[in-house]
Specification:
2 copies of one chain form a homodimer. By secondary structure, chain A is mostly helical. Chain A has 22 helices and 6 strands. Chain A is elongated and about 90 Å long.
């Protein structure tokens, strides 16, 4: 039987701990050369922190920088503080420039200063260039290390150029063709190069309708382009269409995961954070949650005022109180089904604002089906099982129909309107809509009750 | 200024419609050869359906199959029904085998039969092989078209082999080295090949610790491996470690998106669907929503029984009713913050079951901070602003502290326990926990009220 990845990881971790405890460093180095760098990074993070600098120095030279790039920022900072200037320089030389920038963004000022002092002139220039783009923009995701070809090269010359410079480039599988003023005019994939005659001219085999993003494009829509076009890399251009960098598919995957997590957090009334759960301090997690909890608590007291306003009516028929939670929950669930579906559709570019009438009409019909089904189930249960009396069962069932319809229509429309005016649909999606729907449900309930029961 | 992708798309759509209306088919074909195939597919889907077969025949031959692979299944089915056998065969010959299988999975039986009749023997064999793996497994995601090398080949021989067969392979950037019995022994990237001497032996330059998945591995954890290791392709092996296919990164991205959508839907009490929102019929959307709505409505009536049980107490102090929705909402929100965070952490492999004590202890401390803050804000508001009286304000604030702590601890623990016993954490995450937390909050509220107010 083949081992699963989890079993393999556990056995590797144990082997590393054993060799380390018995100080068999040569065997340890050999073991590491057989382990994927991402796994090595994970194993090292499981070891006691004070062992880390020692073990890192044992790693095979050619793996060290790649392992380093997989560490989380706390581990990176800890290591940099333990590094000599020479060691730091060696790691920096081997890191891809976008990984260096990702790391710098998380470091305290003193560490950043030290890195920039040690980095050679050219690297410092590239770092500063990428750092200057806004967070969450295509420019901040890109790397400046890519293969640049000229249109009058032959395929053979292109291969020579790739062989000469390729080792330091993040990808050689998509090569970009630029004019002397750095304007992007085409691209050639390594596949095309390999399948072409060696004396063919680049301009004859290149793809000349190149899809690119501008440096200021939002990272979410940039990542969506990878999803849509199945790219391995995407060129980033400035306002004059000059090629300034490329984004590779691995970074697009990170963004897709990050944006999905952000949407999920916002729908659950949490301010998005960029650290994994177990790495966040209790106090920081508290801070990401308490503003929304407080706001929603205060806005929920609004429902209390509505109940108080109908206190006299309730006094006469306390049994009505017993159904408030069920009505509010059901309407709330109906609303978030609609809002969450629409919000996700907006994120994936499946729904546009111009679809608003179509979406409302669709939700309206779904709501009628849902409302009637729920009302029927509820009426049968109340009348025959709970024996609450015909009129009360009718009031509650009618409230359900109206509340579900209102909840679904509001639920689908609010996120779309929010996006249109530049607000965040995910924030609208769940917490806010629940509060609005709760208040509405109560008013509908008490109105119908007053009319039908004469209280 | 550079056009944005949206503007470009709108102008292309308009140009296509104009040329089509004036029957300038030659110009239309030229225009299509300048448009990316994913965009062409999207443009064609915006056109009236009866024009589709005509326009599809206008497409440049080399683009047709790729455009076809980007269509949604309704459009594919419509086109296949309009195709002659010859046309269908031409498209099938050009499609990658995994795209063919994706398509077949969505087609009605009569269309599948026709496809399998037309497909050549070897293709039919591969299709049947992939179809036989369970949905959502690595085997069902893979393609059987990849570059296979032998360990005793030289780099030059490898290039000859790639040039001969590469045109039909989904990727040539990762080549797999197998023994004669098809056991996987190594991999070589195109980058390594390009940077090596042409007479080097494959076995000397290949990576021999190959990370692979088994055909039955779940698609979600398979996709997570792309995220972790930054792969462009991942080999799929059977139980004897024989290489049967590969998964490419574009399919991993689709899975990542799909799984995030599924989690979001489950958290919002929707049965996951695999069609985009606007393509689903009203009735099917209704069916994906109503079971959960009904179940949650019926379980919410449980809270009604609790209220009825305390009816006499409430009768004496109707004002207590007014705070029920606020208390239930706040506890519910606190619980889903914890459960949603933990569920997402489980999906991203950031949290394992063995972290349970750590997670509970963390949530407990967060809950104390949140509970006290909320209780304080609430007490001040009730006592000074709403002037409800000291004892009632105290009852409500104490209930908040207890309910928030219970909600967060249950909220974090339930999804982890669910995953451990093989249930879906995302289903636990929100709808279920809200119901449990609601009932608990009411009991706590009435107990504290009875004790402190003597009712």
């Amino acid at each position: 039987m083949v081992q699963t990845q989890d079993e393999l990881f556990e056995s590797q971790l144990e082997a590393v701990s054993d060799l380390l405890a018995s100080r068999r460093y040569l065997e340890l180095r050999e073991l590491f050369s057989d382990i994927n760098c991402a796994d090595t990074a994970q194993i090292l993070e499981e070891l006691p922190q004070e062992k880390l600098p020692l073990v890192f120095r044992i790693l095979p030279k050619e793996d060290a920088a790649e392992v380093f790039s997989y560490f989380d920022s706390d581990t990176q900072e800890h290591l940099i503080r333990a590094f000599s200037d020479q060691e730091l320089k060696e790691v920096l030389d081997e890191l891809y420039i976008d990984d260096t920038v990702d790391m710098i963004e998380e470091m305290p000022a003193s560490v950043v200063r030290r890195i920039l002092e040690i980095a050679p002139q050219e690297m410092r220039h590239s770092i500063n260039q990428i750092l200057h783009y806004p967070d969450d923009s295509a420019g901040s995701l890109m790397t400046t290390e890519f293969v640049r070809l000229k249109r009058d090269m032959t395929v053979e010359e292109a291969f020579v150029s790739i062989r000469r410079t390729g080792i330091d480039k993040e990808t050689i599988y998509t090569c970009y063709v630029t004019e002397n003023d750095r304007r992007l005019v085409g691209l050639v994939t390594a596949k095309t190069l390999l399948l072409s005659d060696s004396d063919a001219l680049i301009e004859d085999i290149m793809e000349d309708n190149v899809i690119s993003v501008s440096t200021h494009e939002d990272q979410e829509s940039t990542a969506q382009m990878f999803n849509k076009y199945d790219f391995l890399a995407l060129p980033v251009v400035d306002t004059e269409n000059r090629l300034v960098g490329i984004i590779t598919v691995d970074d697009a995957i990170d963004v897709i995961q990050e944006e999905a997590t952000e949407d999920i957090e916002k729908m659950a009334a949490i301010s998005p954070t960029d650290k994994p759960y177990l790495k966040m301090s209790v106090f920081k997690t508290f801070l990401s949650r308490i503003p929304w909890l407080t706001l929603l608590m205060l806005s929920a007291t609004f429902t209390g005022y509505i109940i108080t306003a109908y206190e006299q009516a309730l006094d006469k028929l306390v049994i009505l109180t017993a159904f408030i939670p069920m009505l509010m929950n059901t309407a709330g669930n109906s609303g978030s089904q609609a809002s969450v579906t629409v919000t996700r559709g907006l994120s994936l570019d499946e729904i546009e604002f111009r679809d608003l009438p179509r979406v409302i009409w669709k939700e309206f019909r779904i709501a009628i089906l849902c409302g009637i089904t729920l009302a029927l189930v509820n009426f049968l249960k109340l009348y025959f099982l709970d024996q609450v009396g015909f009129h009360i069962a009718l009031v509650i069932s009618l409230t359900l129909v109206v509340a579900v319809i209102a909840a679904k229509v509001i639920g689908c429309a609010l996120p779309m309107l929010a996006k249109k005016i530049g607000l965040d649909p995910a924030v609208m999606a769940s917490p806010f809509i629940t509060t609005i729907v709760d208040a509405l449900t109560l008013v509908v309930y008490f109105q119908i009750a007053s009319m039908m029961l004469g209280i």
